[in-house]
Design goal:
By secondary structure, the chain is α/β, with parallel strands linked by helices. The chain has 2 domains: 195 residues, 2-enoyl-CoA Hydratase, Chain A, domain 1; 41 residues, no CATH class. The protein is 47% helix and 17% strand. It is built from 11 helices and 10 strands. The strands form 2 sheets. A 6-stranded mixed β-sheet has the order 1-2-3-5-7-10, sandwiched between helices. Strands 4-6-8-9 form a 4-stranded mixed β-sheet. The two termini are 25 Å apart. Coenzyme A binds next to helix 2 and strand 6. The site of coenzyme A has 15 residues, from helix 2 and strand 6.
């Protein structure tokens, strides 16, 4: 895929790395970026070789410092509604992308930037990361699903404190709150994250997709049960179990 105005996309084996790329504006999410994210996610979803997506930001200072305030300043009710709807659709696409999505948070993750991180399956934060939903300090609320997702991930009390106060927390606090899986030094962020993505990509892709679908889309054990059973029809399941029983590691899963 060609690079776009606000994103870069790189592929390393089965891992796709999508980088938010407006460093002069601390990777703030404008309407062009929303459109490009939408298009990029569609392409990744259709790529049969993609097994894990990593999302990060350009530079050492910011993952994304929020939705573009300069654009929002001039929006009316209908403009704001349309912008939030498109943003929500993109976050939903990330959340329901068939493959796992890992966010590598390289600095400020504020407003829409934090909401994007919350839509991912796993969050790895550099030690310099700062999280916050400062919308209430701008007279608005998070509009890309952040109120719901933060409550779900960290519980009502944490979400209430962060959203009502519009304050920020550092990476250690985000880890304590259960918002991030792990903190690492900034210079190790991509190596660690891509290592995890590579490990995920080495597992049976149909099983990983089914696991995500089961975790994300259903609270229903019946669905999990059906997905579990369906995997018994795959060659990868046969090979994986057979190799295990013969004390061998499955080196390459076929995706079949
Ligand atoms: N929307 C649009 N532009 C933004 C932005 C945003 N959310 N966040 C940063 N920028 C721009 C700044 O306007 C500035 O542009 P300029 O150089 O043309 O003036 C540039 O990015 C650098 O930001 P700056 O504020 O100068 O950096 P800083 O180191 O002093 O502060 C932050 C960093 C993250 C604390 C500060 O940029 C900030 O508070 N940003 C807004 C966060 C926010 O409220 N997000 C939620 C939006 S709903």
């Amino acid at each position: 895929m060609n690079d776009m105005d606000t994103l870069t996309i790189e592929k390393k084996g089965h891992v796709v790395i999508l980088t938010l790329n407006r460093p002069d504006k601390l990777n703030a999410i404008n309407q062009t970026m929303i459109t490009e994210l939408h298009d990029a996610l569609l392409t990744i979803q259709r790529d049969p070789l993609a097994r894990c997506l990593v999302i990060t930001g350009t530079g050492k200072k910011a993952f994304a410092a929020g939705a573009d305030i300069a654009e929002m300043e001039h929006m009316d009710f209908f403009g704001a509604k349309a912008f939030a709807e498109k943003g929500c659709a993109v976050m939903h696409s990330i959340e329901t992308l068939p493959i796992p999505v890992i966010c590598a948070v390289n600095g400020f993750a504020l407003g829409g930037g934090m909401e994007l991180a919350l839509a991912c399956d796993v969050r790895i934060a550099a030690e310099n990361a700062i999280f916050g939903l400062p919308e209430a300090s701008l007279g608005v609320i998070p509009g890309f699903g952040g109120t719901v997702r933060l409550s779900r991930i960290a519980g009502h009390a944490v979400a209430a404190e962060m959203i009502f106060s519009a304050g920020t927390i550092d990476a250690d606090c985000a880890k304590r709150y259960g918002i991030v899986n792990r903190t690492v030094p900034l210079h190790e962020l991509m190596e660690y994250t891509c290592g995890l993505a590579g490990k995920i990509s080495g597992n049976a892709p149909l099983a990983v997709r089914a696991a995500k679908r089961s975790m994300r889309l259903s609270q229903d054990i019946k669905m999990e049960n059906m997905l579990f059973a369906q995997l018994f029809l795959t060659k990868d399941r046969q090979a994986g179990m057979n190799n295990f029983l013969h004390k061998k590691k499955t080196e390459h899963f076929l995706g079949e």
